Amino acid sequence: GHDCCETVKVALCASREGHPVLVVAEESFQFVQDEAYDAAQFLATCAGNQQALNFTRFLDRSRPPAADVDFLDEKVALAFRHLKLPAEWNVLGADQSLTENIPRETLMHFAVRLGLLRLTWFLLQQPGGRGALSIHNNEGATPVSLALERGYQKLHQLLTEEGAREPDSWSTLSHTVHSGDYSVKHHRGLDVYLLTAEA
């Protein structure tokens, strides 16, 4: 997951109390634009756009295998997390004058239809995420009824249980603290700290 295409310099450091920090290895690598990044960008910009959201329904007819769905879910959810979404961004789109009674397709319908558990969780945390759960599409389905109809038990629990927890993924294993151009991430599973500085 990353927010832009750029070259990044990575230095692996070791430290012990009372000793200077030692640079063990250093390398540069490049973040490139991939399908997950493109998909996240497209979905973020088409929130509320009925023509674009209806276009995404063709994916439903050519549903990828379960292992591919899990991989897609993880990659797109991570890409979404790293997008710089505008402050006014909403799962339901820019036009907040639409009432919940108007049938329409939402990003939440898209994520649930494909069984994207982690993306659904991410969308639930965003403005308009919870409101999207009660919106019917043109077939009369809500995201909750879609999950039930398709037999996605975990997804249905995520949408209906109070205090449902975030699905496991690489990103849930870490905690990030931002400060200006710097951020520190602690990966609990590996007990590694990452210091990122924008240059």
Automatic annotation (TrEMBL):
Alphabetized GO MF terms: MAP-kinase scaffold activity
Annotated Gene Ontology cellular component terms: actin cytoskeleton; membrane
One GO-annotated biological process of the protein: positive regulation of canonical NF-kappaB signal transduction
InterPro entries linked to this entry: Ankyrin_rpt-contain_sf, Rho_GEF
PANTHER family hit by this protein: A-KINASE ANCHOR PROTEIN 13 (PTHR13944:SF18), AGAP007712-PA (PTHR13944)
Protein name, UniProt field: AKP13 protein
Organism in which the protein naturally occurs: Chaetorhynchus papuensis
Species lineage: Eukaryota, Metazoa, Chordata, Craniata, Vertebrata
